[in-house]
Design brief:
This protein has 3 helices and 5 strands. With 143 residues, the protein is an alpha+beta fold. The radius of gyration is 14 Å and the shape is globular.
């Protein structure tokens, strides 16, 4: 396991991520390892439900989230459908405090797996909220 340090530099986090390619396999693995490491509270940080690659210092469009009990990695995720808006109060491992933001209870995401195979998948509830938060990170949007 190669868990990475969580980045707290708001200027770096505010940059839009570059598309992920096959050459970013190690970034995807490091991100997954870091998510698993931070899935429980440690190092003074709350437990993580998801991470974006820029949170470990890599400006690539890669996210890792827990979908139920299993972590999954998405390269170049895009939310292509949203339904059932609501207001959520969220925190972030990279930033202090919490902020209220609009989220959607149902989303459809297009993404590539680690072999760059395309997928389209529906998500609901907390998993959907987590994915939206991490996709925002890829766009340089901070809550």
């Amino acid at each position: 396991m190669t868990a990475q340090t969580i980045i707290h530099d708001a200027l770096f986090l505010a940059r839009k991520a570059a598309p992920a390619t096959k050459a970013d396999q190690q970034v995807a693995q490091d991100l997954l390892d870091t998510l698993v490491y931070h899935h429980v509270e440690r190092d003074g940080l709350s437990a993580a439900a998801g991470l974006a690659a820029n949170m470990i210092g890599q400006s690539k469009a890669i996210i890792a989230v827990y979908a139920g009990f299993l972590p999954m990695v998405m390269l170049n995720p895009k939310i292509v459908k949203r339904a059932k808006p609501y207001l959520a109060t969220e925190g972030c491992l990279s930033l202090s405090g919490e902020k209220t933001t609009q989220r959607f209870d149902e989303i459809t995401v297009s993404y590539q797996d680690r072999q760059l195979q395309p997928h389209v998948q529906n998500f609901t509830g907390f998993v959907a909220e987590t994915i939206q938060h991490e996709v925002d990170h890829c766009q340089g949007i901070l809550i």
